[in-house]
Design brief:
Blueprint: E1 46-50, H1 55-66, E2 70-75, H2 80-88, E3 97-101, H3 107-121, E4 126-129, H4 145-173, E5 176-181, H5 194-214, E6 219-226, H6 232-237, H7 249-260, E7 271-274
Parallel strand pairs: 1-2, 1-4, 2-3, 4-5, 5-6, 6-7
Helix pairs in contact: 1-7, 3-4, 4-5
Length: about 280
């Protein structure tokens, strides 16, 4: 079975099927929105961002570009136009943004993507797995097997395949970073969201296992756990929410850039909450 490389609402939890906004009893502080310089220099590193054309992916791609890294956005073929448009705005840095079409749920496609990155760029240093999606609404007693399978395929299978094939060039060079996206739902079973929560819990275990297996090669593996990410799709799903409480893609991206840096060499196997105020 194959799955699309990204969905419009990666790791997001839809209001219509998962949660309602809870007003704060006191006014919440507004997170800083002033752009900040990226303090981590990843010049010379090659970063593959799966699902990099999605709502979270665009923020992550921008942050890694600011770090000086070379970026390969690996996504569905129809996402190429979006990446090309971004490249056209980069001026002299345009050659640092590349695109590789792939089906994130098909092993042959993922393997070919990794091989093409190494052939074109000579290395693969950082893998940021952003592919995922959300579906909920049925209790386990009524849960359609197709929904269960889709959530495992879209969230867990894609992360496994990308990590499996990206590990080889990292092992060869003796350095690497694998970054996965789990979710707050992974930490507690929630009504009518079992398929999603179990898949995201699997991401944590996958990350811990990668850390144990790859640490002797100087490769770290970590994951972050967002709450509801502040994307246009999630705002449309939850129009009455207080959006200032949600983590923004660029805020999550800064955490990922740090985890990809040399400064984070001693952090591996971690599941890091990035909830914002949600």
């Amino acid at each position: 079975m194959t799955t699309p490389a990204s969905t419009p609402s990666t790791t997001a939890q839809s209001a219509k099927s998962s949660r309602a906004s809870t007003p704060a009893t006191t006014p919440a502080p507004t997170p800083a929105t002033t752009p900040r310089a990226n303090q981590y220099d990843l010049t010379g590193r090659v970063v593959v961002i799966t699902g990099g054309a999605g709502g979270l992916g665009r923020g992550v791609t921008a942050a890694f570009l600011k770090s000086g890294a070379g970026i390969v956005v690996a996504d569905r073929a129809e996402a190429r136009a979006s990446v090309d448009a971004t490249r056209g705005q980069l001026g002299q840095d345009a050659d640092r943004l590349d695109f590789a079409a792939m089906d994130a749920g098909d092993e042959a496609s993922v393997a070919a993507m990794v091989a093409s990155v190494v052939a074109r760029h000579g290395r693969l240093d950082v893998l940021a797995n952003l592919v995922g999606g959300y579906s909920a609404g049925q209790p386990i007693s009524e849960l359609d097997l197709a929904v269960w399978t889709r959530m495992q395929d879209l969230n867990l299978r894609t992360a496994f395949l990308a990590a499996k094939h990206a590990a080889a060039p990292m092992i060869e060079r003796g350095w690497g970073r694998i970054l996965n996206i789990s979710a707050r739902a992974a930490y507690s079973g929630r009504k009518r969201a079992a398929a999603y929560a179990v898949a995201k819990a699997g991401i944590i275990t996958l990350t811990e296992t990668l850390s144990e297996e790859l640490r002797d090669h100087r490769i770290t593996a970590n994951c972050v756990l967002p709450s509801i990410i502040d994307t246009p799709a999630n705002r449309a799903d939850i129009p009455d929410a207080d959006f200032t409480r949600w983590p923004k893609p660029e805020d999550i991206a800064r955490v990922l850039v740090f985890l990809a840096s040399d400064d984070a060499w001693l952090i591996s196997g971690a599941a890091i909450p990035v909830y914002g105020l949600a």
